[in-house]
Write a structure and sequence with these properties.
With 526 residues, the chain is of the alpha+beta class. It is 39% helix and 17% strand. It contains 16 helices and 24 strands. The strands form 9 sheets. Strands 12-21-17-19 form a 4-stranded antiparallel sheet. The chain has a 3-stranded mixed sheet with strand order 5-3-8. Helix 7 runs antiparallel to helix 15 and helix 12 (393-401) crosses helix 13 (403-412). The longest helix is centred in the middle third of the chain and has 43 residues, at 163-205.
Length: 526
């Protein structure tokens, strides 16, 4: 491969040169030993890295992954023991994780690894690939998922400065990134503190400690007040009255108009909550169940037959509902009957709870429907709560988002094969600490005031995170355009360096001697 067979991608200094990865490095893949033979994995003496080991990995070098293989596993598979200083580059699922081998190790087939000539610094290539992953992505192929072959990896264009300048660039990058990382760490600390403060606000709100209680104010002002048990009694009476009105209308529509009041006996009183293990409430508060405060309603089950129904409406899925957040950019439609639509139609003030999720901390995500789409239904994996008194909705939302509310939801969720789920009956049984009406209004106002301030600060922090990311990319861009550190006229030009590399390769090829690079050698101790 000629060092002159590549067109410049961007302008570089005269002492630099454009080439391809295959000119400066041996491109070596990896392999996975047979998993049905335990002797491929024991004794586990050879570090073995997979792309999963680099997911979320932020260090520049890596010494081992989660698993080790045996010497037999190395020798009976396509894996190779790569020397320290090899640049590991994930070539699929996904493309672009980068790290430098801190010691001899092997990788699986998800990598194309670059074993460099000693005149090219691994640290320079590491930062180059971090900043220019798009150059590899442009060479990728594949139908199921993007992948870059060994042949294509060898064609990744690389701009090479003189060796001494490579070292200066790496030094400047690490100094600048050290300062940038410290700033990002400080931002992450502030973001974590905001999250803790938000939780403490909701905790105090639902324990009667955020604002003066109505009982305290009434005593101070020498007046009476309505305790929450009176409010609950009124809600229960309204709940029954609504059921009776709906049941009367249903019977009348069927031509079964009642002659007496015996039909009213079919009303099922909602169960009060189980308060064992729950904290004592402030004076004037009362525990109520979700079922006592409103209706708990399931959604639509998606199936093929719905595509033939003439009535189509937008509907919400689990992907649309997050903690106190609706994500409505991707809304699908579903076929429903007129009767179904009456049950699953969303109204402003409805609470939506995620029924099931793969992780405990995501179960029971809850948000308040804002009515921004009409008509709109919900799928069966979203449980709807329609409260008798709609102005309670915001308070119930904050309770379900609070630490104790989250704990109640998580304890109620059952786990089968790692999937946490809620049922209608479990949501109906969720306890709610209900304050008096006036106190509830003050709580909501105070919570919203504080959360609004927190949201504003959080927004500013995200702006700073984005700015830090852009700055990092800008620094990398300047580095590989030759504008981060000055050029030294006394440096040996990169063209001479590459000619020497090519001459050495040609010499090795002509002599017939085995080229230096990764080989199957003795195991490396852990």
């Amino acid at each position: 491969m000629s060092i002159k067979d590549i067109e410049p991608i961007w302008k570089i200094p005269d002492s630099w040169v454009w080439t391809k990865m295959g000119v400066i490095a041996d491109v070596v893949g990896g392999s996975t030993p047979r998993t049905d033979d335990p002797t491929n994995w024991e004794p586990a003496t050879i570090p073995w890295v997979t792309p999963a080991d680099l997911s979320g990995y932020t260090k520049k070098t890596i010494s081992h992954g989660r698993r080790f293989i045996s010497e037999k596993g190395l020798n009976t598979s396509g894996a190779r023991l790569l020397p320290a200083g090899t640049v590991l580059f994930s070539s699929r699922a996904p493309i672009g994780y980068v790290a430098i081998a801190a010691n001899p190790l092997a990788t699986n087939q998800g990598f194309k690894n670059f074993v460099l000539n000693g005149r090219i610094l691994p640290d320079y290539i590491y930062y180059y690939l971090v900043g220019n992953k798009h150059l590899a992505l442009e060479l990728a192929g594949g139908t199921t998922f993007a992948e870059i072959s060994g042949k294509k990896a060898a064609e990744i264009p690389v701009c090479i400065p003189p060796l001494a300048e490579q070292d200066r660039i790496v030094g400047a990058l690490e100094e600048l990134f050290s300062k940038l990382d410290a700033a990002v760490t400080a931002l992450e600390r502030v973001r974590a503190n905001l999250k803790r403060y938000r939780a403490s606000v909701l905790k105090a709100a639902c324990e009667g400690r955020l604002v003066p209680t109505e009982a305290e104010l009434a005593r101070r002002e020498g007046r009476d007040y309505e305790p929450a048990d009176v409010l609950l009694d009124r809600i229960l009476k309204e709940r029954r009255a609504r059921w009776e009105a709906e049941e009367w209308a249903r019977l009348r529509a069927q031509g079964k108009e009642p002659k007496d009041d015996r039909w009213k006996r079919r009303y099922k009183e909602p169960q009060p909550p189980d308060t064992s293990g729950l904290p004592e409430l402030p004076e004037g508060w009362v525990w109520a169940s979700i079922e006592q405060l409103g209706q708990v309603i399931g959604g639509i089950t998606k199936n093929r037959q719905r595509g033939r129904l003439p009535l189509k409406v937008p509907y919400l899925r689990v992907a649309n509902v997050y903690a106190n957040e609706l994500r409505l950019d991707d809304i699908e439609e579903i076929g429903v009957t007129e009767t179904e639509l009456q049950r699953v139609l969303l109204c402003p003030g409805d609470l939506l709870i995620v029924e099931g999720n793969g992780s405990r901390d995501q179960i029971g995500r809850v948000a308040l429907w804002d009515g921004s789409i009409y008509p709109c239904a919900h799928q069966n994996h979203l449980i709807k709560i329609r409260l008798i008194e709609k102005d309670i909705a915001h308070y119930v939302l904050y309770w379900l988002l609070s630490p104790l509310g989250r704990s109640v939801i998580e304890d109620l969720a059952s786990s089968t094969s790692g999937l946490y789920t809620l049922s209608l009956s479990k949501v109906a049984a969720v306890p709610v600490p209900l304050p008096p009406t006036s106190e509830r209004h003050r709580i909501i106002d105070e919570v919203e005031s504080r959360i609004s301030l927190l949201d504003s600060i959080a927004g500013s922090i995200e702006v700073q995170f984005n700015r830090a990311h852009r700055l990092r990319q800008s620094i990398l861009k300047r580095a590989f355009e030759g504008r981060l550190v000055p050029q030294d006229p006394s440096d040996e030009p990169a063209s001479v360096l590459l000619e020497r590399i090519r001459a050495e390769r040609d010499s090795v090829a002509r002599s017939g001697r085995k080229r230096r690079g990764p080989t199957k050698v003795a195991a490396v101790p852990q």
